[in-house]
Amino acid sequence: MEVAISLLLNPHVEDVWQSVLCAYRPAKPGGLTFQGRVANLSDLTDHQWSADHWLATAGIEDRRIDHVNSVMVEGRGQNHQHWLKTCRRPPARKSEFLSRCFTSVETNMQHAQPTESEKEIYNQVNVVLKDAEGILEDLQSYRGAGHEIREAIQHPADEKLQEKAWGAVVPLVGKLKKFYEFSQRLEAALRGLLGALTSTPYSPTQHLEREQALAKQFAEILHFTLRFDELKMTNPAIQNDFSYYRRTLSRMRINNVPAEGENEVNNELANRMSLFYAEATPMLKTLSDATTKFVSENKNLPIENTTDCLSTMASVCRVMLETPEYRSRFTNEETVSFCLRVMVGVIILYDHVHPVGAFAKTSKIDVFSNSLQWVFLPVRYTTKHLNDETTSKQIKSMLQ
Q: Whose C-alpha in 4, 76, 93, 277 is 20 to 30 A from the C-alpha of 55?
């Protein structure tokens, strides 16, 4: 009989990995072969039992293993069914960190308070987040000047219609400027949180456990970002208004006509805003670029500090959403939407900073999660590595 066992472990810790493999090595040589790491749930075939059963069988309880995603057992030979049944044992205890996250996430999201060491960063970020809801309300109520613009274009000789269109567009561009400037504030806030949650000597898991108030703010930024981009993607008036503003402003300059809105948005700022709103998901793009810049500017900080922080947050959200025991404790349906948006956000950030991205077989993120099926639109437009050769065809097909 030959049985191949593959384990999927979150941290890349070689001594832990070896201890798990050795625990399954039989006294009789040649009895088992080991296949290495299986990265995607689609690769798991035949008999799948919870990873906790297999770790318990092996006697492995190492605190450095934050989460075991899955174990694949593929039997070859007539007697492998009996061997598997006799090896099955009661589940091992989950790590303390993830258990606390699962059982108290809703409470933490509502009531997490900063410790003394967190307060400086927390207060800086809180000033930004206080304005987030107002930004979303302004964006949600943004109706655009489509009617006035159409009238002005259809009657180019009618000065009153030109003035009416210009008068309607200028205050709207003021709003767009406010949204853009808020994205710059949000970028600075995110970088401050990344610095706090990835610094030495603590591991990313320890940071997320010790600094729950900052982790909550990080999640709130991602939640806001996904909500903003969802609203922007469904409102074509934003780009239409800004394009009309720029065309009209250019005409006024050529004709030496004083422009009321030019002091509001000068040419340099207009160029930056144009690039921002040209993105399908401008806020996610801003935060992705900010995370990439953070990693490149902090070369003394292991990149794993950042990627492990992101993948751990994704794992926490996924298990909370897909485990009925935990999901049933949510008293507010908004918590489900919150977790979904945060999970998508960290996947996209991970994809931008990890050398091979979120979709390679070695990725620590389960992109086959059932929870992600209806929120793939921002993933499609904002990821960096989705179209790489290392991305499986199944993932590409799922996201199209």
A: 76
